[in-house]
Amino acid sequence: MVWSYAEKKMLIAGEWIDADQRIEVIDPATQEPVGSVPKGSADEAEKALASARRGKEKAAKLTVRERMDVLHAAADELKNSSEMFAACMSAEGVKTKAEAESEVRRAEETLRLAAEEARRLNGEMISFDQMPGNGDRHGYYFRFPLGIVAAITPFNDPLNLVAHKIAPAIAAGNAVILKPAAETPLSAIMLAEAFEKAGLEADILNVITGRGREVGDPIIESEDVRMITFTGGLGAGEAIAKKAGLKKLSMELGSNCPALVFSDADLDEAAQAICDGGYAAAGQNCIGVQRIYVDESVRDAFESRFVPLVKELKIGSKQSETTDVGPLINEEEAKRVERWVDEAVNAGAQLLAGGERSGAFYEPTILADVPPECTIINEEVFGPVVTLNTFKSESEAVKKANGVNYGLQAGVFTNDLNRAMRMVHQLYVGGVMVNDSSDFRVDAMPFGGVKGSGIGREGVKASVNDMTEPRVVGFKLKLEP
Prior knowledge:
Blueprint: E1 6-7, E2 10-12, E3 15-17, E4 22-26, E5 33-38, H1 42-61, H2 64-80, H3 82-92, H4 97-119, E6 124-126, E7 137-145, E8 148-152, H5 160-171, E9 175-179, H6 186-197, E10 205-207, H7 212-221, E11 227-231, H8 234-244, E12 248-252, E13 257-261, H9 267-279, E14 289-295, H10 299-312, H11 331-346, E15 350-353, E16 357-358, E17 361-362, E18 365-368, H12 375-378, E19 385-391, H13 394-401, E20 406-407, E21 409-413, H14 417-426, E22 431-434, E23 450-451, E24 454-455, H15 460-466, E25 468-476
Parallel strand pairs: 1-5, 8-9, 8-11, 9-10, 11-12, 13-14, 13-21, 14-19, 18-19, 21-22
Antiparallel strand pairs: 2-3, 4-5, 6-7, 7-25, 12-24, 15-18, 16-17, 20-23
Helix pairs in contact: 1-7, 2-4, 2-6, 3-4, 4-5, 5-15, 9-10
């Protein structure tokens, strides 16, 4: 299906509204406009907050069955319009056609997982009589919704990461204010349309588009908002945390994921997994492989397998079935990646593949023997570049893997179970994937990281739990006549 230009509106208080100014949504590959959205202001943010205050009362009154039904109905809408959703994502963002189709399937799964977690949102009995003198006390706790959740989402997964915030919030009985990325708001608005068709009551979901400071700050700073769930860069996350005040925060702030390849690993499988994990979405993936560390005894053998795989990757139109790597989100980001690569090469790194830019496209690139002080070793590149360095021992591998201010996920390639378990316990990350790259996730698992990679965990069950609070109920009863 071919995407056609679409003018979308904001959803506030159950109405689709416009603004005096609009923001053009640009296809980063062609630099052609593919749609537009309103440029919201602080006034629209205040209206969204007022709506959400009404919405939290409505959401809390929804029965578990009603929450489940609306989530399944929205998933059905998504499934029935999957081609249109995929075409939209591929047009407005960085995903190839195949990557966009995969994301639509994942988003549907995320909505259905949230529906199932709604039925499992339970408490448990509390034995008050464990304390002496409390034999006449009985009680339990249950989980109740926070009220209003603010969701701020990035450009790289413009549908599924929106689903990961909206769906658990609704499953938990909250109202949601969504602020999607200004670069890729169209598919998020389409998901809101799906919820409207699914019968979600007005005021429970508000979607506001615009620039972060203009529409985001009033929402972030509002005392009515009880939780902010944010996916984006570390700097933006730190700024939000300073403005938020006393409220819950869940933040996934990116990474610089390592892959450790030991001498006993299946090198063919490791090379293919790292190639797949390093260049999907043109490297604009928080769990994509960025740093490879290989046992020096198998460095040449690994390199001889890995480099040809990367050189075979095809750059081109996002709509082509044969394209492996699409564009970066804009030319400025491609230029930044170019600067980081040039810095590493000037510092002595070897360029084994790639290294060329054309507009917003950057070739799949491998840098070997990169000095540890280089930016591309220490920061998140968010582009199609991986580094290849070596280690002599397990302890050196762990030290290098842990030696950055990020810790989202890591990949470990070994056929030694004892070594694998040592890595599981020594790598300071949120997830360790053994004999797979860091680029593995199922939407049901707890997902998040440590250090600069963020706080809290997403994944539907973890999010539903985080978007509720426990309330203890105690009775003092006379059970004897």
